[in-house]
Amino acid sequence: MSDPTENICPEINKDQVEDILKNDYGFINGKIQELDGYDDKNYYITDVENCIEKIEFPADGIVIKFINSIDSKNLLLLDAQTKLTQHLERYGIHCPIPVFNKYGESYRSIILNDKKHAVKVYKYIKGETMNKIKINSELSANFGFYVGNLTSILKKFDHDGFHRSHLWALEKCPEVLKFVDVFDQEKQRQTITTVLNKFQFNVLLKADSLEKSVIHEDLNMNNIIIKDNKIFGIIDIGDVVYSFTIFDFAVALSYLIMHEFKENNAKLSDIQIKSFVEAYEKQYRNLNDFEVSIIHTCICARICQSLVLGKKSSLRDLSNNYVLSTQKNGWRVLEELMNIEEDKFVMLLKN
What we know:
351 residues; alpha+beta; five-stranded antiparallel β-sheet; three-stranded antiparallel β-sheet; 15% strand; globular
């Protein structure tokens, strides 16, 4: 088994954050708040006392991101991420726009504990994350519409940096089987193995007919910003890849379902799945028969992927509760999904 505790996350302290903000951006004595994250370190900066360079400090603040040591090696990816945010902005999608440093660069590399980490600063997107909101039929439809619109916009963009192998890409989820031993219970290991093998044979080996494009890959509720009870924007483009277009739909729906299972008595039949699907299809296009047939398997596979990688990350940093967020509801959602016949699940989507 590969070492699940290998530390790719930046190890940095507040003084180092302050030094970079001062020396590269001219921002002095701001308030620093650490944000949730998996393999990157993110800090929200507000109320700087002074700007000694000719760089305007955004009114809503900034986020300084220290990128994990793996992605930091991929300079093409870092360029792709910058160009993608500019593309999304042109099409009216609110997302974290890079703040260029005094050298005119969107990022620079630093050495922390003998590992290279890229550092980026983004404008902060103000609002409430969707994970804090009870989702009704109207908001579910808004989410479906937003995912459909984002899909259309992403199809107009491509960059070699997103043609990569990425462990969080749904397409790569069978690879997390090498980490399945992070779970002590044989039943959990067997469940994950069964689901991911099914995904391999029923989806990936039959995927020739599926369209491909750049996709966000992590449309979870923590990455969706809400204002005035409507979706305002998205954050975190760290998992963007070129892959099967339908996977963004499946990933978004999987997180919508898991979000609603925060209620202890939640059932699949209670979730506004149909509103999401109808709005997505109206904005993008109707799902074809094969796409509909694989959605159930794709959702189960994403949950397994998140369960394994979250547990893996927790072994590296026992204090990071965020990486275990899927564990709370994921197993219960997975059990219910595996207990429903797939044709009945399709009825939740389309009837």
